[in-house]
Amino acid sequence: MANYFNTLPLREKLNQLGVCEFMDSAEFSDGVEALKGKKLVIVGCGAQGLNQGLNLRDSGLDISYALRKEAIESKRDSWKNATENNFRVGTYEELIPSADLVVNLTPDKQHTSVVNAVMPLMKQGATLLYSHGFNIVEEGMQVRKDITVIMVAPKCPGSEVRAEYARGFGVPTLIAVHPENDPEGKGLEQAKAYCVGTGGHRAGVLRSSFVAEVKSDLMGEQTILCGLLQTGSILSFDKMIEKGIEPGYASKLVQYGVEVITEALKQGGITAMMDRLSNVAKIKAFELSEELKTIMRPLFQKHQDDIMSGEFSRTMMEDWANGDEKLLTWRAATGETAFEKTPAGDVKIGEQEYFDNALLMVAFIRAGVELAFETMVEAGIKPESAYYESLHETPLIANTIARKKLFEMNRVISDTAEYGCYLFDHACKPLLADFMARIDTDVIGRNFNEGKDGAVDNRALISVNEVIRNHQVEQVGAELRKAMTAMKAIKTA
Ligand SMILES: NC(=O)C1=CN([C@@H]2O[C@H](COP(=O)(O)OP(=O)(O)OC[C@H]3O[C@@H](n4cnc5c(N)ncnc54)[C@H](OP(=O)(O)O)[C@@H]3O)[C@@H](O)[C@H]2O)C=CC1
Ligand SMILES: CC[C@](O)(C(C)=O)C(=O)O
Ligand SMILES: [Mg+2]
Ligand SMILES: [Mg+2]
Predict the structure, then answer these.
(1) Is residue 25 a contact partner of residue 483, using CB atoms and an 8 Å limit?
(2) Which residues line ligand 1 at a C-beta cut-off of 6 Å?
(3) What is the number of domains present in the chain?
(4) Which intervals hold domain KARI C-terminal knotted (predicted)?
């Protein structure tokens, strides 16, 4: 199998990368009709599998789980997830032949073997669904020509797919039909219905392509969503400890700070997040984030270049072949960091204090969101897709950190995202060494406003506000958020 994207002529590469159409809510007026009464069989019951299945069942669809024989026999977590939630569970042989829609929600590195195992069992004219296009785009999986291949990719961790649905909202979702596999022309209607079943249509749906989803998803997860949240959290915590801030306070400020700060981002973009700061603090956070953008831009560009060329997937697949050696080493190291091992203290931190005492984290988040967005758009990814993949998803990942720190984030995200996150983190920390050497507790750990009279130069403030508000991520975000009328505020720590 060859990298599908790399086999395409340039014209077709650009064509597929540019597929991005915001779908009007009227396009979902048929609800789940196209899948009503059909048998949906989900392969795998992990982060996405369980949570998508719960939403789909609550939306009135017929869901069961096909698991590996050994998972059933040894009652593994996947079996427990499914049976404790009263789903029907069976082997591939028992469930796949009668499935109208087979949903592949196993880890990306297993996709080739899973698809090769289920494909011969699938009935003529059935549909195969993915939530990430890696197998099709980066590995060039060839699917039987009578099978329809679609993608419904929630831009969010599985846990939040469920949590947002339970709040009466949903998560932005990319849907696509693989151009090589739509023999009956039914792919789009089925993808739309599935998306309604997961609640995605309430938050915003882009009609995308497998290619556009993969090249944007990998970039978001490696940089702002996971990589930079990991790097920024660890560096912020370590700096506070180095400077004598009480460890329990430092731990809590970072663990819950990412959630509180990014909640403002989700509701009103970078503007709302920066507006939570006093004028004097906003100017300082702006200066820090500009400096961070200059330092980190080449790294963001390298990640995007390697994703586009296939170099990233080639090297990650080498690690798969090597028993996940790098992934497992990095995973173990994250479990041992001082941040991970220091419990959040029993101290009260007021909502505003998370902003005033953590300017550095605000700066990391502005820099990371804008850089990820800018780099994706420069590479040909459409702004709407880049917005979902940078700004909107950051708070949803932050929710996982608030639950149980970075270990939880890395547990909940896909193995593919986890690998990219560590790759970024290991390259980014050395780049930021000089910058961090100049950082003190006025911007992380203590209230930046303390001892200042709040005076600012009006012209400086006006120009900072203009730069923030006129960024393309703000303009696109303001439009996309108009469709998010059902968005609910999250009660933060
Ligand atoms: N994690 C996330 O939040 C997101 C994931 N995605 C995509 O969703 C898909 C699923 O990812 P995710 O939910 O993280 O996966 P998980 O790692 O959570 O899923 C593991 C599930 O797959 C099963 N599984 C593992 N290995 C195999 C195998 N060789 N054969 C059959 N089943 C296997 C496991 O069952 P058992 O080992 O017990 O047999 C378990 O049920 C991926 O394509 C990912 O990119 C998209 C958006 C976000
Ligand atoms: C951010 C990582 C992700 O792409 C996701 C949760 O959307 C993943 O692969 O887990
Ligand atoms: Mg994603
Ligand atoms: Mg991903």
Answers:
(1) yes
(2) 44-49, 67-68, 71, 76-78, 105-108, 110, 113-114, 131-132, 153-154, 157-158, 412-414, 416
(3) 2
(4) 209-353, 354-487
Residue 356: give the domain boundaries. 212-482
Asked if the structure places residue 379 within a domain, the reply is: yes
Beta pairing class for 101-104 and 62-66: unpaired
Would you list the DSSP string of 150-194?
A: EEEEESS-HHHHHHHHHTT----EEEEE-TTS-TTS-HHHHHHHH
| Closest-approaching ligand to the CA atom of 396 | 2
334: CATH: 1.10.1040.10
- Known catalytic residues? 132
Phi, psi of 62 (to 5 degrees): -95, 110
Residue that terminates a domain, selected from 162, 186, 207: 207
**CA–CA separation, 154 and 350 (whole Å):** 32
Please name every residue paired with 154 in a beta bridge, in sequence order, or none if there are none: 173
Q: Which amino acid is at 121?
A: L
* Structure-token pair, residue 156: 């969010």
Distance 383 CA to ligand 2 centre (A): 19
The rounded average pLDDT for each run of 10 residues, N- to C-terminus, in the chain (493 residues) is 94 96 96 98 97 98 97 97 98 98 98 98 98 98 98 95 94 96 98 98 96 98 98 98 98 98 95 98 98 98 98 98 96 94 97 98 98 98 97 95 94 96 97 98 98 95 98 97 79 60
Q: Which helix (H) or strand (E) holds 428?
A: helix 415-431
**Which tokens is 389 given?**
């993949």
**Selection from 266, 225, 261, 232 nearest residue 373 by Cα:** 225
Q: Which residues line ligand 2 (CB under 6 A)?
A: 155-157, 217, 221, 225-226, 397, 413-414, 416-417
Are 193 and 220 found together in one domain? no
Task: Determine which residue's CA is closest to atom 45 belonging to ligand 1.
Answer: 132
Length of the chain: 493
Q: What are phi and psi for residue 104, nearest 5 degrees?
A: -90, 100
Q: Does 173 lie in the same domain as 112?
A: yes
Q: For the whole model, what pTM was predicted?
A: 0.97
Say if residue 167 is in the same domain as residue 219: no
